[in-house]
Design a protein that fits this description.
Length: 341
């Protein structure tokens, strides 16, 4: 048995709170407070102890969709002179997972399960700061299912944490009390894919008034249906974004097209017509997307993680798009799991 916890693709921080003063340190004990004033405010507002030392993962989120974004986008915060702009373009959430000190009490020699209880007591959760998602695991099958769920929700894997009484806090050491379980993947898919835009979601913030993301689908020639595989909102220039509503205007329909299979409810639906070349980090199991539903795993489809627009493909008809079977083949080709301590 162990506790498995989502491993988010962000920056691990240790937050020191004393009254209204908050200092953030990186894993290497570099003071990174100046880069994350919004994260400091979240700690200030939602950690209800007067004094505390807590740890969590700061993760970039998409301001338009709320989806988790890759670690690389956090690095925009390292530019000292544009923090206000970076806060708007690359907002963050914090997923808390450990508590080392609360109001005069040192918790580092207490087992992990007790430290987590202290954390739950002092953390007032919101949509921007919450406990790392976790589950008590009793079997290898449960572990594998939880791992696939974490990947499908945009995480890089899971952490398996010991329930033993000797699972005390070890500074800078993971050892065998904490084991990382993650998928090895390249920064890009082995091949790009050509997908069909079947719907769109309205943007927020700086994308208000245009589309924040497009719902993309692969083609299933056996049933002549387009099955969703991702929402893509990255890779577009400001000029691209501005042109999207006009480009899709001739294809807007009031309801989902009968040739589209989607569990997601788009804000705007399109006749399947425009093909785009897309890349991404990897293909994962998904409870939300219908591409290859039930083929790889019962009750799950396949999705592209961190999809990014590359270019339009006006030379291709919707039926020339990447097929569901080709997505399945890409998934099988890349599937390689490693364990790292």
């Amino acid at each position: 048995k162990c506790i498995a916890e989502y491993k988010y693709d962000g920056m691990r921080v240790q937050a020191h709170k004393s009254g209204n003063r908050v200092i953030l340190y990186s894993r290497r004990l570099e003071n990174v407070t100046q880069y994350f004033p919004d994260a400091c405010q979240l700690i200030r507002d939602h950690i209800k102890a007067k004094e505390a030392i807590v740890e969590g993962e700061v993760v970039a989120i998409d301001p338009d969709t709320g989806d988790l974004r890759p670690f690389q986008e956090l690095m925009h915060r390292r530019r000292k002179y544009e923090i206000e702009k970076a806060m708007e373009e690359y907002p963050v959430s914090i997923f808390m997972f450990d508590c080392l000190y609360v109001d005069g009490e040192d918790l580092t020699l207490k087992p992990y399960t007790e430290r987590r209880k202290y954390l739950m007591d002092i953390l007032e959760e919101s949509d921007r700061i919450k406990l790392a998602h976790y589950k008590l695991i009793s079997s290898p099958r449960e572990l594998e299912e939880f791992f696939e769920q974490a990947i499908a929700e945009g995480c890089e894997g899971i952490m398996c944490k010991s329930l033993m009484p000797n699972a005390v806090y070890q500074s800078g050491v993971r050892g065998f009390l904490w084991i990382k379980y993650k998928r090895d993947y390249k920064a890009e898919l082995a091949d790009t894919v050509d997908l069909v835009a079947v719907g769109a979601f309205w943007g927020k913030g700086k994308r208000a008034g245009t589309y924040g993301a497009l719902l993309m689908a692969a083609y299933d020639p056996e049933s002549d249906v387009f099955r969703t595989v991702c929402k893509v909102g990255s890779g577009f220039t400001d000029e691209d974004l501005e042109k999207l509503p006009k480009m899709f205007e001739p294809y807007i329909i009031p309801h989902k097209h009968p040739r589209v299979d989607s569990k997601l409810e788009a804000d705007i639906w399109f006749v399947p017509a425009i093909v785009m070349e897309v890349t991404g980090a990897e293909i994962t199991l998904s409870p939300l997307h219908t591409c290859a539903w039930g083929i790889v795993k019962e009750g799950a489809g396949l999705a592209i993680r961190f999809p990014r627009f590359l270019r339009y493909r006006p030379d291709k008809r919707p039926e020339d798009a990447t097929t569901v079977q080709e997505i399945v083949d890409l998934y099988k080709k890349q599937r390689k799991i490693t364990m790292r301590g």
